[in-house]
Amino acid sequence: MSYHNPYTPPRKSATFDDHTLAEIRRAAATGIYDIRGAGTKRKVPHFDDLLFLGASISRYPLEGYREKCDTSVVLGTRHARKPIHLKIPITIAGMSFGALSGPAKEALGRGASISGTSTTTGDGGMTDEERGHSQTLVYQYLPSRYGMNPKDLRRADAIEVVVGQGAKPGGGGMLLGQKISDRVANMRNLPKGIDQRSACRHPDWTGPDDLEIKILELREITDWEKPIYVKVGGARPYYDTALAVKAGADVVVLDGMQGGTAATQDVFIENVGMPTLACIRPAVQALQDLGMHRKVQLIVSGGIRSGADVAKALALGADAVAIGTAALVAIGDNDPHWEEEYQKLGTTAGAYDDWHEGEDPAGITTQDPELMQRLDPIAAGRRLANYLKVMTLEAQTIARACGKNHLHNLEPEDLCALTMEAAAMAQVPLAGTNWYPGKGGF
Amino acid sequence: MSYHNPYTPPRKSATFDDHTLAEIRRAAATGIYDIRGAGTKRKVPHFDDLLFLGASISRYPLEGYREKCDTSVVLGTRHARKPIHLKIPITIAGMSFGALSGPAKEALGRGASISGTSTTTGDGGMTDEERGHSQTLVYQYLPSRYGMNPKDLRRADAIEVVVGQGAKPGGGGMLLGQKISDRVANMRNLPKGIDQRSACRHPDWTGPDDLEIKILELREITDWEKPIYVKVGGARPYYDTALAVKAGADVVVLDGMQGGTAATQDVFIENVGMPTLACIRPAVQALQDLGMHRKVQLIVSGGIRSGADVAKALALGADAVAIGTAALVAIGDNDPHWEEEYQKLGTTAGAYDDWHEGEDPAGITTQDPELMQRLDPIAAGRRLANYLKVMTLEAQTIARACGKNHLHNLEPEDLCALTMEAAAMAQVPLAGTNWYPGKGGF
Amino acid sequence: MPVIDLATTPLRDLNKALHSIQQGSNDVTYEIANPRGSHAVAVGIAGPVTVEVNGSVGYYCAGMNDGGTVTVHGSAGPGVAENMMSGTVVIEGDASQYAGATGRGGLLVIKGNAASRCGISMKGIDIVVHGNIGHMSAFMGQSGHLVVLGDAGDALGDSLYEAKLFVRGAVKSLGADCIEKEMRPEHLQKLAELFEKAGVNDVRPEEFKRYGSARKLYNFNIDNADAY
Amino acid sequence: MPVIDLATTPLRDLNKALHSIQQGSNDVTYEIANPRGSHAVAVGIAGPVTVEVNGSVGYYCAGMNDGGTVTVHGSAGPGVAENMMSGTVVIEGDASQYAGATGRGGLLVIKGNAASRCGISMKGIDIVVHGNIGHMSAFMGQSGHLVVLGDAGDALGDSLYEAKLFVRGAVKSLGADCIEKEMRPEHLQKLAELFEKAGVNDVRPEEFKRYGSARKLYNFNIDNADAY
Amino acid sequence: MCGIVGLFLKDSRLEPQLGQLLSDMLITMTDRGPDSAGIAIYGSAAEGRAKVTIQSAKPGIDFADLEQDLAEAGLPARVVLKSTHAVIAIAASRLADVRSVLAAIRPDVRIMGSGDSVEIYKEVGLPKDVVARFDVRAMGGSHGIGHTRMATESAVTTLGAHPFSTGSDQCLVHNGSLSNHNNLRRELIREGMTFETQNDSEVAAAYLTAEMAKGKDLGQALTSALDDLDGFFTFVVGTKSGFGVVRDPIACKPAVMAETDRYVAFGSEYRALVNLPGIDSASVWEPEPATVYFWDHQKAA
Amino acid sequence: MCGIVGLFLKDSRLEPQLGQLLSDMLITMTDRGPDSAGIAIYGSAAEGRAKVTIQSAKPGIDFADLEQDLAEAGLPARVVLKSTHAVIAIAASRLADVRSVLAAIRPDVRIMGSGDSVEIYKEVGLPKDVVARFDVRAMGGSHGIGHTRMATESAVTTLGAHPFSTGSDQCLVHNGSLSNHNNLRRELIREGMTFETQNDSEVAAAYLTAEMAKGKDLGQALTSALDDLDGFFTFVVGTKSGFGVVRDPIACKPAVMAETDRYVAFGSEYRALVNLPGIDSASVWEPEPATVYFWDHQKAA
């Protein structure tokens, strides 16, 4: 008789874990890489690994409810005749109409306007809902140029030249055919129902020397009124920020690898780009080296979720942050309310990321008229405003505890780190030490 | 009244966790170490801890869908009259007939041939299925020499002298009696149904000075036509690679500790050898020190699962990778489809590793004719081809994002690390810093 | 007729003047002297204005033109008439790369040759080139017409969507998913119309071949993966 | 009879010449002069060829021989006739370690002594040694016959599978799982056959003892663990 | 990212104006490269004489008494100072000795280029300041190339400025961004090349030097560069008798050429060419991708 | 991993050819060890004289005026230069002083070996180059051993080459790979030995030296080596009057011996022996595992 081991509980491999196995099987079955929405799902060093040092004896805090802690920020002071004044340093990141439904774009505009901040268009052009409901609207200038036209350019409050996104620095986009409704197709000058690829380079310029001329053209078309942002994915933030400044940007938008996306290869989302936390200091360093810190504003995005994240990004030197995923969640994305339908789609609330497939039960990442109906833009806008208010209060409460009368007075010296990696990336000491890993010390 | 402690929840030990306890019990019951298949199950530093820096402003990406990104690789250019030309830098690692069923070997051959890559025989010789269905077949020359003969040597496209395997550098193999079918026994010149031990040293040479003569003999027998690979387990990769080169290898195959195995002591799998990630840079350094990088090709294996892993291995200096476990999963190993039967075997899909016992419900690691029937080699080959296609597309999409027109142009400078360990092992900086842990920097 | 001399007048003043013309006002003609390769000349025109440029221009001349008529008596740099909405742009000399890129409407006429990526990502514009065009032209072209009286370079119409390409001379190579298609009467008629508009007299529509999308890459199929 | 002088001819030319002989062609005889310890002499023979080597050879002489007849008029280095498939190899002098390693068929005759590991991992080959053999011989021998007219060194037949060992002289020690077995008539007959083939005249089968596997290690048993 | 200009004179009557024309072309390209600028001028070769252009971070010290010290070291030479650079004129037969002698007597001095006719000047700063510093306008010659730099990933230094010398009377300027320069640099270092910067263009220059050392001529070296260099590039290479141009296969960095009876000119933009005499009637075109172009006085002669 | 050769002459008429024969044997073993090579030659001992072989990384400096400096330090000696090595001949009674005097006047010089009759030469490079450098072919002697090295885990340096000196007129060469040399080295360091390399063979040499220092003779030391050394090894040990051979109990690194009336020879492969006179009629065999062999002129005498 053959020999059998006694029972030992089954053990799974950390290298070939369930996700990996499932992905290999999926690849074997389909022959195409996995495309999905949302951002990096695995754990990377993030703001959670930083802590604020509140004031105590050696420093004095500000009274939490009384003493002023200003949150305003002005963007585009370098060249624009009409800089943008925001009440809070939290903006809504660019998300394409097409990826998002009309009501979702409207909700974002409403919420941002209540809060005194800006929204951003996306790959696919500007919709009237969005313009109408957004007090301040940033118009993205993308490689695909879907829907780009001079009227909208002039209707915008600022222009954002998108060089890359944190979810896919160096990569292009893909919008699957099932999301190309009549309206989307029309805005994009494309047949309905076909996959839409977005290029990774702009059609009419490459490199910072060309970009300088492109920015000149945009300024001339808009009579030097509007701030010009340049958005880059976080990969070589020092160089990219420096070059954006040399090319004439008023504002640099820096999107770390956790940044959400509507549709990108999973392999790209998880393996290309640097964590947001790792991007900020090199970018700020570049601005400082060029004497442009606070003159060219830095907006950081990618995984911003709370007022603490906001305060930390600002303390590391950003002027403002942008949120994408968090804003979608605030207006109802992945809500357990629709759990039954998520189950039908083979997923669960909180994990749904097939945003490119257009079947979003919450009516946000879809072009299906029935699903869209589910999202009440007025209520959803209110929810976003509430959420922005909470983030702002949270950031203020932290700043006050550190004795700051403006969020911008937060400093790296107000922080310490819980992990070696975070300490090295944020260039702050490991908690309780004077050790800056990678810099010597002790 | 006496005093009672309130309820405290049970707490298990991290040192004596369930696996450890079960293993002690198993050892106590049987008196023999645990033998199993598959690779290291615990977590070790791996490619997941590396990220690519996509192109942005300072560099230009290539158009994801259009601009050429070559994936071909030529192996054996050093001495062989007929080097091997592969379309993709992903080969199928050597897995023995005996460990795998005939249909499984056939499926691997079919899938690899569709994809323009090579398969490898294993401990147990060459089968006609495999030769017939593999466009390019590498013939392993192992210590056991089971089935070794000059006809097959000449039928092969390359010869791989196996010195060791990542799962067990320095260890031998064991194939339990229940897997020794008539056919396997016949190929191995052994009685049916007995345990087969494989030696850990070759019977007729020891050391690099002898190996040089052994390679000379193999070249003479095959008239200097075929590339000679030398496969080593990852333990002292710098020295082992250097000595393989000095002994005359055309190609060095380096298998890290996560590399799969058909049957090895668990204690060996989990405790001997270095992680794949830690092996590559020393091996590449050895090749560079000898002026042989890209002249003697380096194939890396052990835990390769996705195009991202492929791209990372290549960026660190490998010329190609090999996959074992992942290929088995792609053709159906550990598929949840057979969950009921896995449960009967006391395990679960994703954790089944008693590959040496020959009862694989998926019909892959078995010699049982009925179980084998379950694997359709044509469909399974197609699945493998799909999976290889996805890995290739993924590696290409990453390389294009880094602006490369050939996967081999990926460089360590395109990477950064998420952890100190990975940064030190891969000799790339921690993300967002210029710090090479273990090397100084900043 | 106002003359603006770019040797003495800042570019800003030129474009500001052109922008002061509102949609619906009467046509005005400006003459521009000494452009000498300046960038962003006459960009963002939003009304019925005629601009005569005497000399060669740099990047993005007549960019985003919406209703104006711009003639360059010289050559044009990269991205001439990029993203044009409506109106007419005529280049008497050659045009550099990206001519008419992402154009949505209007007519671009190039009397000389156009360099690479002519009509890249075109979205409705009509482009007529009297000479030859360079490689990668009409890459990802979505709609509109590209008419070439001379030859076309490598990878014409790569990843094409629904733009229609007409070439009279030789095509060095076609890009992925671009094929030659049958010339039907409506195409001959369309060509005749475009000749009329672009002032082309000496050739006949029948001398042209039509190229368009094979539509194989419209929805992903693993068997076409190598074309990606 | 072609003579190849290794003092002047590269090894490659020798082996290439031997490989050019196809299975099924007529027997040819080559003479090899001045081998002087060269390695890989006459390896990979795949047809009916007779090779006379005048002198001593290095490693792997007649490796993987399949059908040839190779005689070495001198001594042989390590791994002579390794992995032989068929044919005959005769060493007039001594053989170094690993003689006949992993051989699958054919006959290896060593007129002098064989060093350690003679017949290691043998898989069907017949080996006849006129002199003594060294330690660890027939280690993990799977099948075939090893006949020794002289003495055997330490650990004979360690971890033996089904190879059959016959020794006329003293056995210094037996390896794990190797035991002396009864000589049955069929064994005496087999020996006689081998003597015939190997040109052994002066001894009788009855002078030999037979050794084989105790088969205790065939399937793992904890009580035999010390033998592993 | 950068701006490139090149001018090759067919009409020798223009030769006294070469520096003047090239300076204007270079300054026009300031927007493309405000960080540093450089220029290589090919003057008429004096029979049997050769020139070495050197640069120093402390010219006051290094160039003092240089002529005398060279003479004492056995190298009779004439030294002409130009700001941070100096040109050493010597007998052509002694050209090979200059490097070793300088290494001994002026270890900190960097050799910018050498040959029978080339002089290379480059510095950090705006093109107009660089041109003024070296008085480029006053220089005459048969052809020349110039470069303005916007640094992408390597430092803004004199050594990081172009042109890079690739051999006797040879130099290279580059616009673009190579994506495999780190691996290539490692290989070239193994082959014995030395590098001063982390600059990708220096790798291109070293690559061409190495290929030519293996026996290729410049055209063959440029052709193999099309295979071995990855990324985006436009190279303009100056040689003793002319210049060559090659663009990568994707060719999206701009390049314009103009030809008349009197000259052939190259510019990253048309703007660079507008002040050339007779430009309005010149034939103006853009070089094809992955194609090697050459203009040569000797072949013309 | 390595190649070893050894030759012990019984017939004194062969003595002038010792270097010649040994050189050919050594060069044949190049394939086994291309990294470095070394040789120990036992010449005829001059009555009352002793020799010290020394090595220097900068022979030009260290060997200049060495004879004179030794004399000034009170050590009258004759110094013969051989490339990077030199042989110091002195009165046997002063042998013990050489080390301390050299440490004072030539601190960087390394002592390769010393004794009445041994001279040791070793260097990095191919065996043929090493043989040529020291003009080994011209040397005569009664017996000698040689070694070619393929470095496994320690650096390729002169000091890592074999033979290793293990005492007066004693040296060792090794083929194989010890698996407990790190622990042994630590123990020996604790016992006061010093080490120059990370090489396992040096540990074997030091081990034998240490055992003999405890009063064992060479045979006893080799016998205890069989117990104390783990791994694979073949040692050939040279002594004033002969040489010894021992293999590990597994004995899978190759070794061949040949004996005739005129000599006893050792080689890692038979190839090393084929050029010896009368090899065809020699008795050729392989040493047994775990067995100590000896050939000795004195016992023969």
From TrEMBL, chains A, B:
MF-aspect GO terms: glutamate synthase activity
Entry annotated with the keyword Cytoplasm: no
Domain Glutamate synthase, chain residue ranges per copy: 74-332, 356-404
The entry's keywords: Oxidoreductase
Cited InterPro entries: Aldolase_TIM (IPR013785), GltB (IPR024188), GltB_archl_type (IPR043578), Glu_synthdom (IPR002932)
Region annotated Disordered, chain positions: 109-134
Keyword flag Nucleus: no
Source taxon at top rank: Bacteria
Any one of the GO BP annotations: glutamate biosynthetic process
Biased composition (Low complexity): 109-121
Coiled-coil residue spans: none
Family in the record: Belongs to the glutamate synthase family.
Protein name in the entry: Glutamate synthase large subunit-like protein
Natural source organism: Sinorhizobium fredii (strain NBRC 101917 / NGR234)
TrEMBL record, chains C, D:
Annotated GO MF terms: oxidoreductase activity
Classification via SUPFAM superfamilies: Alpha subunit of glutamate synthase, C-terminal domain
Protein name per UniProt: GlxC protein
Domain called Glutamate synthase alpha subunit C-terminal: residue spans: 47-182
Highest taxon, organism lineage: Bacteria
Pfam families: GXGXG
Species of origin: Sinorhizobium fredii (strain NBRC 101917 / NGR234)
Automatic annotation (TrEMBL), chains E, F:
Keyword check for Ribonucleoprotein: no
CDD domains xref list: GlxB
MF terms (GO), sorted A to Z: glycosyltransferase activity
Domain Glutamine amidotransferase type-2, first and last residues per copy: 2-298
Broad enzyme group: transferase
Keyword Transferase among record annotations: yes
Pfam families on file: GATase_6 (PF13522)
Enzyme Commission designation: 2.4.2.-
Keywords: Glutamine amidotransferase, Glycosyltransferase, Transferase
SUPFAM superfamilies, A to Z: N-terminal nucleophile aminohydrolases (Ntn hydrolases) (SSF56235)
Protein known as: Glutamine amidotransferase-like protein GlxB
Organism name: Sinorhizobium fredii (strain NBRC 101917 / NGR234)
